Amino acid sequence: MAKTKTAFFCQNCGTQFPKWIGQCTSCKEWNTIVEEVVQKEDKKSWKTDKVAKQANKPLRVSEITQEQELRLDTKDQEFNRVLGGGLVPGSLTLLGGEPGIGKSTLLLQIALKLPYKILYVSGEESQRQIKMRADRIQPKSENCYILTETKTQNIFQQISTIEPDLVVIDSIQTLHSDYIESAAGSISQIRESTAELIKFAKESHTPVILVGHITKDGTIAGPKILEHMVDTVLQFEGDRNYVYRILRSLKNRFGSTAELGIYEMLGSGLREVNNPSEVLISKNDEDLSGTAIAATVEGMRPLLIEIQALVSTAVYGTPQRSATGFNAKRLNMLLAVLEKRAGFKLAAKDVFLNITGGISVDDPATDLAVMAAILSSNADLPIEKGTCFAAEVGLSGEIRPVQRVGQRILEAEKLGFSTIFVSKSNKISLKQTGIQVQKVSKIEDVVGHLFG
Ligand code: TYD
Ligand code: MG
User: Fold this and answer.
1) Which residue, of 131, 172, 173, 209, has the fewest CB within 10 Å?
2) Which residue lies with its CA nearest to atom 1 of ligand 1?
3) Whole domain around residue 440: which residue ranges?
4) Are 346 and 420 part of one and the same domain?
């Protein structure tokens, strides 16, 4: 009788150990080592009758013929943009995100829109559940096949009968392969199932999209090696209480990771938001104190966002500071700068900061808008309509230049803003603009301009 082979894996980082230990020597987590049965039979290819054992020969770089990378158009502009122009044949894309954020909705929607033959494999929902979702999303498709299955060998069998042009797996954590005996979702199962899918994708030139669960701290569940194995890692994020969702690329072997896709979750699926600045700025006719508009750049896209601040007298001894969508440490730093350099006594005040739309930004160019919003709320004076900001603030209260300022100015102009505050040291190559570019070098200058 063949001896059962087992190994010990850290469930946190995926490191393999020959015996059990209390603390993982690699990621230093306690009690994460679990024994898993690793039983390797002699493996067959994903297609049993086609065991291609072609040995590759080394070639000179000049000898490698570069065919034009044909990409599969996903009919979804935002998705295409994040991928760098569409799905590359034979590529593996991993889509991660919190539960309920809309991963299944996004992929089903793409699957229904495409004119190609698609196999949507779900290990999480029944065919009827998926049908219900498809009815909400609307587009009727004759090319989209739904399969509820978790065993990779069965999936490959269906693939060879249907011969799809795109395979979607929802999710990788539910798959299990016969070659490994441990439970679905364990480190060795995820690794094995992914390896089998990669083999299939590369041999058949079919793109595969995987859905991946994420853990409490926001990383994709399973071994880190999963992210190394796939070609592209996308993350779908947003605040579930709001309708906006952002699709980011964390790794992309075929394009830039700076691209960003924005969607709005509606009752009938996800809507592509092609002009995000318009929806993120509230259309308020009244002049309200405490709001300022920042001209940010997220990834490659200029984005105008609204920042709201509320400054009020502290009720308790320690003033409260709270920030939603903005780094709390950075807020404290900006408050300290205001206190020290501009003489504002904010130590006895509570400060609340909020970025509307439930999105979060980490562009340093939002600094000046954050300060302006705080100052405006503190003085209870609204900032003049049509004003926006794009500059970083340094520790000594100096207004620092930001990158791609031209792009920000153009976006602000396009949206009808009349004034934009930028740093004096920003080199601006734009010739003629219909927007007034106000150059400032110190925080005091800004105060003078706004409330002077
Ligand atoms: P889902 O795609 O199931 O999320 P995930 O696969 O990431 O876990 O999305 C579920 C949420 O989306 C659910 O709370 C309902 C909402 N939703 C809509 O608002 N509109 C829709 O058309 C659909 C299909 C879902
Ligand atoms: Mg889902």
Assistant:
1) 131
2) 102
3) 279-451
4) yes
199 and 151 both lie in a single domain: yes
Instruction: For ligand 1, atom 20, name the residue with the nearest CA.
Output: 267
The stretch 227-250 carries a mean pLDDT of: 88
Pocket test for ligand 1, best of 105, 108, 209 (most atoms within 8 A of CB): 105
Q: Are residues 26 and 94 located together in one domain of the fold?
A: no
Q: Of the candidates 257, 274, 291, which is a domain's last residue?
A: 274
Kindly report the three-state secondary structure assignment for every residue of 347-377.
CCEEEEEEEHHHCCCCCHHHHHHHHHHHHHH
Q: What is the pLDDT of residues 403-418, one digit of tens each?
A: 989 889 988 888 888 9
Find the residues whose C-beta lies inside 6 A of ligand 1: 97, 99-105, 133, 136-137, 265, 267-269
Residue 192 lies in a domain: yes
Nearest ligand for residue 95 CA: 1
Nearest CA to ligand 1 atom 10: 100
- 270 and 123, same domain (yes or no): yes
Which amino acid belongs to residue 435?
A: I
- Percent of the chain at pLDDT > 90 equals 44
CB proximity list for 257: less than 8 A, separation 6 or greater: 248, 249, 250, 251
Q: Of the bound ligands, which one is closest to the alpha carbon of residue 236?
A: 1
Whether the CB-CB separation of 168 and 107 falls below 8 Å is answered with yes
Identify whether 53 is part of a domain: no
CA–centroid distance, 263 to ligand 1, in Å, is 13
Q: Are residues 134 and 222 in the same domain?
A: yes
User: Do residues 83 and 117 both lie within one domain?
Assistant: yes
Atom of ligand 1 nearest to the CA of 105: 2
- Band of residue 51 on the pLDDT scale cut at 50, 70, 90: very low
Reported as a single tens digit per residue, the pLDDT across 87-134 is 999 999 999 988 889 999 999 999 999 888 999 999 989 999 999 999
Least confident interval from 60-69, 249-258, 421-430: 60-69
Least trusted range by pLDDT, from 172-176, 343-347, 408-412: 343-347
Of the pLDDT bands very low, low, confident and very high (cuts 50, 70, 90), residue 7 is confident
| Closest ligand to the CA of 107 | 1
The pLDDT confidence band at residue 284, using thresholds 50, 70 and 90, is low
Among protein residues, the one with the nearest Cα to ligand 1's atom 22 is 269
Task: Return d(Cα 226, Cα 262) in angstroms, integer.
Answer: 25
| Residue 67 is assigned to a structural domain of this protein | no
- CATH number of the domain enclosing 152: 3.40.50.300
Protein residue with least CA distance to atom 9, ligand 1: 102
Residue 115 neighbours by CB under 8 Å, 6+ apart: 75, 143
CA angle 280, 394, 433 (to 5 degrees): 50
Same domain membership, residue 323 and residue 298:
yes
Say yes or no to pLDDT of 52 above 70: no
Q: 188 CA distance to ligand 2 centroid (A)?
A: 22
Mutate to test the pocket of ligand 1, among 106, 136, 236, 265 (most ligand atoms within 8 A of CB): 265
Final residue in a domain of this structure, among 226, 259, 274: 274
On whether residue 212 sits in a domain, the answer given is yes
The ligand placed nearest to the CA atom of residue 123 is 2
Whole-angstrom Cα distance, residue 156 to residue 128?
22
**436-440 sheet: strands from edge to edge:** 321-324, 349-355, 301-313, 291-298, 387-389, 419-423, 436-440
Average per-residue pLDDT in the chain?
86
Q: Are residues 185 and 313 in the same domain?
A: no
Structurally, the chain folds into a number of domains equal to: 3
Average pLDDT of span 297-308: 86
